[in-house]
User: Fold this.
Amino acid sequence: MRLTNPILLLLIPITASAAPPDMPILWGYSPADPAPYVIKQTDNNLARDSLTFRIGSLVAETFGSNVDFIATPNNRITEYLQQKRIELLCNTQPDWHDNPDAFLWTQPLYTDADVIVSLAPNTPRVLDDLNGKVLGTTLGYQYTGALTRAFENQLINRHDVRDISVRMTMVQRGRLDASIELRRAALYHLRRQDTKDLRLSDWTVEDFALRCAIAGQDQLRRSRLRDSINSLVAEGAIQRLVSSYD
Assistant:
């Protein structure tokens, strides 16, 4: 989960009362994250086949607790953390936050990348290939510095669209020249939709390793959560889950 508005989290003294041992893990997730990270049920809640749900359930089992998945809009993450409505946020990395030292960070759970989707054979190979083009982007998403500068200098026209399936359709219909997507989400979508005329670029706009940020006032609980997640990473359990979607 990448934010344009940085999280400013006030550290709370460790002398505050500890969380009850049977308290569920309050797992925040962005409802705007694409499948397979977030797959929604008909009631708009997180589906059990979401990668987020499966990882969270595995962590909770290892931690010895239950887990509550809490939809957290990007523009309210700071509020949710400060009000203790969530204690953990994954699919992120320290570089996306102004004050990363306010969190306890896990090891990277998995990697992903921003890639370009376009109509074949017009697949861009470098950033300059997008000059003068209209690029479909995710609302509220912050991109790599070079691409952001290209938007600011009006070399590339940014067009925010909330949903990956809408962006893909707009590319197919020529309403967008291309879209920028998470590689895993783009591949997941392309396998399930009639998108045979769309291509992913071999060129990677940006690679990143995605981790969990753990907040809260109970330092022992934070450390236990981090260690539970890190142990699953070390065992390869999380990567096996991720690989089942690739």
